[in-house]
Amino acid sequence: MSKENNSKIKRFFSWFNLNNKPVAKHKVDDIVLKHDTVSKNVVLCGKSTNIPSISDITKKDVGDIPIFEKPNKNKILSILINKLSKTKNNFGLKIKNLFFKKKIEHLFYEDISKQLLLSDVGLETTSELINNLMKESRLKSLNDSQVVLSLLKENMVNILKRVEKPLNIISKKPFSILVVGVNGVGKTSIIGKLTNNFKNQGKSVILAAGDTFRSAAIDQLKILGHKNLVSVIARKCGSDPASVIFDAFSAAKAKNIDVLIADTAGRIHNDINLMEELKKIKRVMKKIDCFAPDEIMLVLDSCIGQNSIKQAKIFNEALGITGLSITKLDGTAKGGVIFSIARQLSIPIRYISFGEKISDIHDFNSENFVDAIFSEHT
What we know:
By secondary structure, this protein is of the alpha/beta class. The chain has 13 helices and 12 strands. The strands form 3 sheets. The chain has an 8-stranded mixed β-sheet with strand order 7-6-8-5-9-10-11-12, sandwiched between helices. Strands 1-4 form a two-stranded antiparallel ribbon. It has a two-stranded antiparallel ribbon with strand order 2-3.
């Protein structure tokens, strides 16, 4: 190989900051993926402190994992139509069929109401939709069922528009995101997808393994860090989660990182002690940045229906939730719960997530969501 070609290859790998050190794909167990020693003084709300050395620990064998994944080039609507097929078939299409079979009369509205309830839209939200639909239909003397259907969809979009507020990563460094939720809702998956999303936007990211109750959770986050070539600040299982997140926040600030994403242990929403621990994490983060965390993101599982609203209310009372991510929308036939979430909570829905691919996450868009569940295309 010529010196010129060799120089080009070195320059290419320097872009990944790998220092030209080969990493075996088949065996990661014996390799330290990255080591960062930080010993800089930073201001913690007016106080100066020294940050200890921080190193990432070796991961388990993860095989040939793609480092970056390009954003999906398909139109978002086409993706949603495909991913929301269960909700579309059991919610949208069944409601559409009512408009083809029924005349515009009182029984017609009762049938729509029943279907909305079966689709987990919720009693209060269903009442609002039906009452508005009947009122507007009478005022406009509407007899065409398809025009009434369009009116229903418009009212559904209006409910979701109230919470259609994408996450805005402001220019402060780091922008801190605290991810919370009960067990099994998909917090780790959301963190991986967000990390990939931010990396594709050219932002630097550090992850904090704040779920110290399960060693598997720590390992999962390390694997996500390896996938996305980002540092993961972790301690041994059983460590104080607030301390881990404090170290990660300090490191992110010292290294001028764009985004810090902190994982937390899943907890039952009515467990007072565990909720107090989250409050402690929030207080500890404020020692570094008086305005932190910048986003307290609650992850909700769409498959559990109306129970997700109860969860959200308790988390919100304890922490002041600033944004929601709705997961597993591809696995439920009752995606109507998102309308109840929007109406009752009035908390911004940042993202909707479906599938296991790292790209299976999108900014929430109310019009696309409603169009997808009423689409006839597959």
